[in-house]
Amino acid sequence: MSDYIHPYRDAEFVLNELVELDRLCADAGLSDVNGELVSAILAEAGKLGSEVLAPLNRTGDTLGVRLGESGVEETPGFADVYRQFQEGGWPSLTAAEAFGGQGLPNVVGTAVNEIWHSANLAFALCPMLTQGAIESIAHHGSDMLKGSYLPRLVSGEWTGTMNLTEPDAGSDLAAVKTKAVPQGDHYLITGQKIFITWGDHQMTENIAHLVLARLPDAPFGVKGISLFIVPKFLPDREGRFTVRNDVACVSLEHKLGIHGSPTCVMSFGDKEGAVGYLVGEPHKGLAYMFTMMNHARQAVGLQGLSVAERAYQQALPYAKERLQGTNKDGSRFSIIKFPDVRRMLLQMKASNEAMRALALVAAAETDRAHGADAARHQGRVELLTPIVKGWLTELAQEVTALGIQIHGGMGFIEETGAAQHYRDARILTIYEGTTGIQALDLVGRKTLANQGALLADLLEEIGETLQQLEAGGERFAVQANALRNALEAGREARRFLLDNAARDPSLAGSVSVDFLLLFGYLSGGWLLGKSALRAQALLNAGGGDARFLNAKLVTSRFYAEHLLPRTGALLAAIKAGSASIMALDEDQF
Amino acid sequence: MSDYIHPYRDAEFVLNELVELDRLCADAGLSDVNGELVSAILAEAGKLGSEVLAPLNRTGDTLGVRLGESGVEETPGFADVYRQFQEGGWPSLTAAEAFGGQGLPNVVGTAVNEIWHSANLAFALCPMLTQGAIESIAHHGSDMLKGSYLPRLVSGEWTGTMNLTEPDAGSDLAAVKTKAVPQGDHYLITGQKIFITWGDHQMTENIAHLVLARLPDAPFGVKGISLFIVPKFLPDREGRFTVRNDVACVSLEHKLGIHGSPTCVMSFGDKEGAVGYLVGEPHKGLAYMFTMMNHARQAVGLQGLSVAERAYQQALPYAKERLQGTNKDGSRFSIIKFPDVRRMLLQMKASNEAMRALALVAAAETDRAHGADAARHQGRVELLTPIVKGWLTELAQEVTALGIQIHGGMGFIEETGAAQHYRDARILTIYEGTTGIQALDLVGRKTLANQGALLADLLEEIGETLQQLEAGGERFAVQANALRNALEAGREARRFLLDNAARDPSLAGSVSVDFLLLFGYLSGGWLLGKSALRAQALLNAGGGDARFLNAKLVTSRFYAEHLLPRTGALLAAIKAGSASIMALDEDQF
């Protein structure tokens, strides 16, 4: 089992140098928020993460959760963790002040959320989903719903869930069958939802379930889905939430990972029907889901970084302590002396730094989308969201696998702990939309729908960083050469898609995942190139922690050498198009 | 849970078209062995695999093994499987006829072993390790040892184990501490061994442990290690094996996968010392281990193919049956219609076919190394062994991960079965020498030690296939272009290593894994290119199963488009050398 320490130096470097947090806060009129305050917040969160959340990460894995007579019993100890989490005010960090929130920028919330997900991924899913519920209600709920639910969700007094999936409706929500029948001021909901994360627990007195269902007059397909709030407990005559609503977890899934997070089959309306309240207008449920999808998807991408960081922190001390080489005099040395072990560690470290940079830069775009040049920033949010979700979670698979590999045989032993991160990470490319779904979003709504304008804008900005690297001469030659090749691959991939998608209906789907990964690696290379420029500038000015900044130059270079060249292989696969992919009849597979 | 059916058409295609089995058998003087007989053997093995081994694969995973009062209790049902396996004569397939073996070529044994590993990886480890024990004794044991042990191991009456690893001696066997003290005609062994696969069970009346230990006068390091046989039971006065030797499993590991395979901590000589018999000469244990290492390493590489094949067979029916898309009229279609799902399936299928081709071609080289032009074939065995072990097992990680991904959320649910293959596969890049160890072997003993001669010979043969593809014109243009680039990458990587390794002691270790993977992808591309040529020739001649042969042309093309280009990215990483890998101080990680 590993300890967890928040890598605050790297987070602060990204916030200060890439995000330019002070400027972001000033532009947003948050005069009392600045880098110093954020560092203090991160330090406090880091402490809670290390001391309270992280020690129960393995407990969640080994003890898991169970379904008892009065519902789901979370892992022993989690309720106490939740209490401390709530008392620290963490659920309210980025929520609107009108509902008791602290109104901090999303990018600060994201930097803090990295800590929760690293410390205890299974636990952190609970507040993450609550945040999604808060957003849905805040954006689309009536004033009455807002008044009833938001203060309690924002304070963490209650938690929230998202109920989308049904046995026959996963990626394809058109098939949702759960019904909602109007009855006075509310609706009666009946149906079954599956894969509901934290669908039940005993940590809070109530749970607000957000549920997709169909009204009796609903049109066919995704345009006939409405959004409802279904609380676990309804108010009694005194307004206390003591009356059990007709909704319950009827079974728990036995999963590969995140054992501490209950994944529920939820049954609505087994008896008289579950009381629910319509959020916003009828038939707009899917659109409302999309409102918060950018946030939820970026949050899952962030989990990719978080679990990869945890895997790195598990592997690094092992590599430093494990004696395995023998010197000629019989003395031993640790495996971190072996170049191949260093290569694996650097692959993890460089990947993590690229992921952190992209996750925070993308999060900051959602803040900037509320200020000057809003449309451009919102466009960037739209573009980066599937890349953050898709690429970070795919990269997390590789990093957590390397975490096992560095341990050798010990990595395969569950008690070591490396395997948990590997197992936990495996869900990330699946939930909140698979990599394939993210990739279709990227090539379709985010690229073809705007003739590649959003990508062109990103490519242009990357080109500016390339010019700065080129201007730096020999010092940045490795990064500049690799980024130039990758940028050209990105341009060519964009052109190829735009030129060919219309005449070949299978093309976009055939190349989509490679397309997403290409832009992921390119974006990472862009931001680590930019990081090298900033690190060198700080070194030249004699500012900052020189050993940290010099290491940043090394990881930037390693990334350019080892990860950026993958864009060439991805481009080749993209340009192969759909022919061989569509060639086989089903019985030839 | 998935059924398993041996993909006999592909195995036979590889055996007939790439291995040229009939010629191999004729050259070896095995006049009664031919393709027809081998097909019959494969059909019989496939039946046992599907009907007997495969149904217990999931049982092994869920029930696992336990340590009882009289030792390790294997998964319920495994003893019966073993009995049928033994009664079928499968343990003796490739063993020498002098000891009751059937004397079939190694490549036939390998084709059959693919079935056992696919059907039940955890179970199949037991006969796999027994085969290793047989080889050690057959090559290095005295006539007395051979006479006592081989007939019983070959018949499957007993099983064998390999006891190498100790807590402080994993990849670095120089640190082995287990002691052997001479006493009359035998030795008394004391020490602890870890990670001993199938170190104990109740399926057979005896187990022969092969153990590395040090004699009292042993020189320091790997040159002071000797090899011993330590039977679980010693003979009583009537020659029946009823006297318990002082060796026991003292605990079992709790592992990420292969739960049906007991991984034992073995204690030797807790009381009076375990009776052991020296195999061959003193201090030559490590050399003896190397004798069978080629076989054992190729066998683990084969497991990579096997578990990947099983993962494919798990994912394919799901993709055909899972309805998730909705047509405009409301009817549903299965996810195999989606190009991205087809891409994932083809990635699995093409990878598997490349792995099968390389595994069987490498296995055939070990047969040919006993005939004409033996030195060249033995050189090829030496060269291909680390590639087969390293590349196939790394590729298996990707294929089993895709197997989960195709299932979406269901892939993360343990009952689905896809997760087991993913967990089981994770050990393969670790045991029998990690990928890093294989890669060091490839760049060191197999390349630098012979100035790249072995690689040059392989590259030349690949060049011949390239010429044939080029001569085929437009029909093979995709394969030819991709193979040309990959071949050039291979040549450049070889030159770069030879030119730079001497002046930079960190270089070989820094680039080794990328070097191994590059030659893995290149070898796969070579053999699938060759497969395309043979498939087309058969089609032109009107022979064979046209739908199968046309599918082979498609997977060959897909591989050239999607997997071969990775060689470019790997070459770039290789040419980056060691600078950034060696740049950081340990505290900068």
From TrEMBL, chains A, B:
<dbReference type="InterPro" id="IPR052166">
    <property type="entry name" value="Diverse_Acyl-CoA_DH"/>
</dbReference>
<comment type="similarity">
    <text>Belongs to the acyl-CoA dehydrogenase family.</text>
</comment>
<feature type="domain" description="Acetyl-CoA dehydrogenase-like C-terminal">
    <location>
        <begin position="458"/>
        <end position="585"/>
    </location>
</feature>
<dbReference type="GO" id="GO:0016627">
    <property type="term" value="F:oxidoreductase activity, acting on the CH-CH group of donors"/>
</dbReference>
<dbReference type="InterPro" id="IPR006091">
    <property type="entry name" value="Acyl-CoA_Oxase/DH_mid-dom"/>
</dbReference>
<keyword id="KW-0274">FAD</keyword>
<dbReference type="Pfam" id="PF00441">
    <property type="entry name" value="Acyl-CoA_dh_1"/>
</dbReference>
<dbReference type="Pfam" id="PF02770">
    <property type="entry name" value="Acyl-CoA_dh_M"/>
</dbReference>
<keyword id="KW-0560">Oxidoreductase</keyword>
<dbReference type="Pfam" id="PF12806">
    <property type="entry name" value="Acyl-CoA_dh_C"/>
</dbReference>
<feature type="domain" description="Acyl-CoA dehydrogenase/oxidase N-terminal">
    <location>
        <begin position="79"/>
        <end position="157"/>
    </location>
</feature>
<dbReference type="Pfam" id="PF02771">
    <property type="entry name" value="Acyl-CoA_dh_N"/>
</dbReference>
<dbReference type="InterPro" id="IPR009100">
    <property type="entry name" value="AcylCoA_DH/oxidase_NM_dom_sf"/>
</dbReference>
<comment type="function">
    <text>Involved in the assimilation of dimethylsulphoniopropionate (DMSP), an important compound in the fixation of carbon in marine phytoplankton, by mediating the conversion of 3-(methylthio)propanoyl-CoA (MMPA-CoA) to 3-(methylthio)acryloyl-CoA (MTA-CoA).</text>
</comment>
<dbReference type="InterPro" id="IPR009075">
    <property type="entry name" value="AcylCo_DH/oxidase_C"/>
</dbReference>
<dbReference type="InterPro" id="IPR025878">
    <property type="entry name" value="Acyl-CoA_dh-like_C_dom"/>
</dbReference>
<keyword id="KW-0285">Flavoprotein</keyword>
<dbReference type="InterPro" id="IPR036250">
    <property type="entry name" value="AcylCo_DH-like_C"/>
</dbReference>
<dbReference type="GO" id="GO:0050660">
    <property type="term" value="F:flavin adenine dinucleotide binding"/>
</dbReference>
<feature type="domain" description="Acyl-CoA oxidase/dehydrogenase middle">
    <location>
        <begin position="162"/>
        <end position="269"/>
    </location>
</feature>
<dbReference type="InterPro" id="IPR037069">
    <property type="entry name" value="AcylCoA_DH/ox_N_sf"/>
</dbReference>
<feature type="domain" description="Acyl-CoA dehydrogenase/oxidase C-terminal">
    <location>
        <begin position="284"/>
        <end position="441"/>
    </location>
</feature>
<dbReference type="InterPro" id="IPR013786">
    <property type="entry name" value="AcylCoA_DH/ox_N"/>
</dbReference>
<protein>
    <recommendedName>
        <fullName>3-methylmercaptopropionyl-CoA dehydrogenase</fullName>
        <ecNumber>1.3.99.41</ecNumber>
    </recommendedName>
</protein>
<dbReference type="InterPro" id="IPR046373">
    <property type="entry name" value="Acyl-CoA_Oxase/DH_mid-dom_sf"/>
</dbReference>
